[in-house]
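Dig into what follows:
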Amino acid sequence: MICATFPKKMIGEPLLYNLGRDFEIVPNIRGATISEEIGLVYLELEGSEEEIEKAVAFLAESGVKVKTVPGGMPADGLPPPAPIS
């Protein structure tokens, strides 16, 4: 699972749609919290390791902060979005 943090300028972009269209993966949103300033999305990406790596690189190159979340989503749910520093 990955946690993708979308900055304000990227919130309205169809990046997750593009992942499924442009890469041989299936993005599955497991949780999300969005404000006017930031978006925080927990994603499972199904597909080959190579395609997942390409998709994650695409997100990062697009300005999305991406980090792997070992063990999945936090047990206590999603935190409220905080501004990116």
